[in-house]
């Protein structure tokens, strides 16, 4: 296992809340998968959870070295929790193609929140560690 790249992002939680108020379901559906939306809805603070997922997606795009552009869709990156509550990243579409080109086999992500911010760190690995 080798670390290929790292990305980190800080999201202003009130900014995400404002985007939801301004654009509603259009914004939510464009950025978050159905599973991410269901996870947020099931929690006390929906905006906090969506801000964390947004930060994770940005961190993944940073480690890819692309940012959000071209044919990349926000929903090409899905962040859902495993049975233990740890966030896990699944890639699809254009982001999956980029990951394959870069030799990325696994992305490890960590997310944390405060009242005003969500921070995510993502590390790209050449393979997933044995469990």
Describe this entry's structure for a reader.
The protein is an alpha+beta fold and 131 residues long. The chain has a single domain (3-125), classed as 4'-phosphopantetheinyl transferase domain (Ribosomal Protein L22, Chain A), CATH 3.90.470. It has four helices and five strands. It has helices at 13-31, 34-41, 46-64, 93-102, and strands spanning 3-12, 77-81, 87-91, 106-113, 117-125. The strands form two sheets. A three-stranded antiparallel sheet has the order 1-5-4. It has a two-stranded antiparallel ribbon with strand order 2-3. A hairpin with a 3-residue loop joins strand 4 and strand 5. The protein is globular, with a radius of gyration of 14 Å. It starts with a strand and ends in a 6-residue tail after the last strand. The model has no long low-confidence stretch (mean pLDDT 93).
CATH superfamily: 4'-phosphopantetheinyl transferase domain
> How is the largest sheet built, in terms of strand order?
1-5-4
Q: Can you tell me the CATH topology?
A: Ribosomal Protein L22, Chain A
Count of the domains: 1
End-to-end distance, in Å?
13 Å
Structural class, from secondary structure content?
A: alpha+beta
Kindly state the percentage of residues in helix: 40-55%
Question: Quick one: overall form?
Answer: globular
Number of strands: 5
Named CATH architecture: Alpha-Beta Complex
Amount of beta strand: 25-35%
């Amino acid at each position: 296992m080798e670390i290929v790249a790292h990305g980190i992002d800080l999201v202003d939680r009130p900014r995400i809340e404002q985007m939801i108020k301004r654009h509603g379901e259009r914004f939510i559906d464009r950025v978050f998968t159905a599973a991410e939306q269901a996870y947020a809805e099931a929690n006390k603070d929906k905006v906090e959870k969506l801000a964390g997922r947004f930060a994770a997606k940005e961190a993944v795009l940073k480690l890819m070295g692309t940012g959000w552009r071209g044919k990349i869709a926000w929903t090409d990156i899905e962040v859902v929790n495993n049975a233990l509550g740890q966030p896990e990243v699944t890639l699809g579409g254009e982001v999956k193609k980029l990951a394959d080109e870069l030799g990325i086999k696994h992305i490890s992500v960590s997310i944390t929140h405060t009242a005003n911010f969500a921070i995510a760190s993502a590390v790209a690995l050449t393979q997933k560690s044995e469990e």
